[in-house]
Amino acid sequence: MTLLVVLTVVAIALLIAELAVYLFIVGSQLTRVATKLEGCSEVVWDIKRNAEPIKSGVIRINSTGRVIAGALPLLYAMAEGIVIGATYKAAPKTESVPVQPAMKQRRTRMHDAVGYNPGGQS
């Protein structure tokens, strides 16, 4: 056998080995996905079992929702009327008068207590 035939057989053997490893990895991942899907299916069946009692009331719930949805435009119009009537209007500005002191000159009684009379006032 020539070298070329030997290398071709080795290359084919490596290719088959790589494919076997690849298929093993993909198989293990698919097994993991199948396990998780099985758990999800149990959750879905639990949800279906829990939703069974609600099924009979869905028609009534939908009719109540339609009534509420029909009343919303009326309620919206009423709310706009309330807001327009309650809108804040600022009071008109008046001329501000500067603050005047209560007395012209402030007098203390402490001076009188010690006998000091500033400016001869009594």
The major β-sheet equals: none
Quaternary state reads single chain
**What's the pLDDT, averaged over the residues?**
83
Cα Rg: 47 Å
- Percent helix: over 70%
Structural class: mainly alpha
Low-confidence stretches: none
Strand content: under 5%
Task: Please count the helical segments.
Answer: 3
Number of strands: 0
Order of helices and strands: HHH
Give the SSE layout:
Elements: H1 3-55, H2 58-85, H3 110-114
Describe the structure concisely for a colleague:
With 122 residues, this protein is mainly alpha-helical.
Can you give keywords for this protein?
single chain; 122 residues; mainly alpha; 3 helices; 70% helix; 0% strand; elongated
Explain what the structure shows.
The protein has 122 residues and is mainly alpha-helical. It is 70% helix and 0% strand. It is built from three helices and no strands. It has helices at 3-55, 58-85, 110-114. It is elongated. It starts with a helix and ends in an 8-residue tail after the last helix.
